[in-house]
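@channel anyone free to eyeball this complex?
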Amino acid sequence: MGRVEHHIILGEAPARKKVTVFVDGEPLEAYEGEMIAAALWASGRKTLRYTKKDNKPRGIYCGIGRCTDCVMIVDGVPNVRTCVTPVREGMVIRTQKGLGRWEEGGGSEND
Amino acid sequence: MKTTEIVVIGGGPAGLSAAIEGARLGAQVLVIDENSRPGGQLFKQIHKFFGSREHQAGVRGLEIGRKLLEQTAELGIEVWLNSEAVGVDRDKKVWVIKDGTESLEVKGERIILSTGAVENSLTFPGWTLPGVMGAGAAQTMVNIHRVRPGKRVLMVGSGNVGVIVSYQLMQAGAEVVAIIEAAPRLGGYGVHTAKVRRAGVPFYTSYTVKRALGRDKVEGAEIVALDDRWNPIPGTEKTLDVDTICVATGLTPLAELAWFIGCRFHYIPSLGGFVPDHNEFMETNVPGVYVAGDIAGVEEASTAMEEGRLAGIGAAASLGYLKPEALREEAKKVWDRLNSLRSGPFGEGRRKAKESILREEGSIYNARTL
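replying in thread with the prediction:
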């Protein structure tokens, strides 16, 4: 785990603005524009949700938005694919249990 | 409802190449892509490509991606990002969800489906644990997000994806503890395989993963030898100290939209499973609907780009932007390159598999008469 700062082909990691997101209530520093799942794994956290039936942990599987293994509750909206959803300053991210549920304020800007 | 001449669904190497050819010939083109940036999986391909100079051999995938984006911009091709094509009907109306919020319809006179492929999974006890992931996912993590998925990796599968991603995980500072291959022979190109081998990574042929260890995440892997009938041999188990298991066991075409619109399919295991029927210009049995790239059979980015070009010129020609003779001439050039990409010990099988589609009765054209 950890970030790849120096890379033999890609060079130095580009300078990016830091943002703060809240994961299950705890602040986490992330880079603006990076995917939620990447920020979480970089911080050492691998479990993103628990399944409905057996409460089993799930992490990143396909990493490109196809498999939905990495869904979490983001700003009140459940089932958000965190591997293809970028972080934003102040974003509220929660571990999803089962199918998740809409939380207060979730999706209100789109109603 | 918006209407346009060519709607390209999927802005990876095939889709962008199709769009560029279509637009270059004068057609009005719209590219729809669900990602926040186009290029598909090209930007994580940081290795140099194969083929001859005209196939951009020696150029890294990400550089090719940048060139495609430049050409797309130069031609002023409209690209909708964060836009999922969730349905398409026989009238070629595409239903699009934009930014996860807006529902739109767009009608294309021609549709090019270049939706790519998805990695296969492999089931074994513990396969759902965090830390088991597609090799392509690990590649996305290190090369795009620049985050290591783990420190110690077991790679399952020795094909090109397995060996290339192994090397790239090492370039990103991870240790590849082993590459295992269920078949008795290694599956990747020699040059990629040798690079990993020279770096000291052990290969195990006729081995598979028996189970992942760990309760909340991967904390190890047990591998087991297979006999000549692919059955596990008791007593040959080895436990590896790994925190990540990458699965590189092939890809399956992402063909939902082709099923949706009524395409006829062939089941061709060597091309990844069900692939839509298509002719030499990549047109399916549904008139005006084309396929290109991995959806038309899993190959490589270089072949995907050539197929995209075929679909682009085919679609543009059918709209009147290219005369039949000129179409044949242009298509012939692309086919020559495709045939050379599909030669050699690895390409030959793919060429034959692709030809088996073109030979089907009802195929309008024939590659060899071009």
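from a first look: The interface with chain B takes residues 1-5, 7-10, 13, 34-35, 38, 41-42, 46-48, 56-67, 69, 83-84, 86, 110 of chain A (CB under 8 Å).
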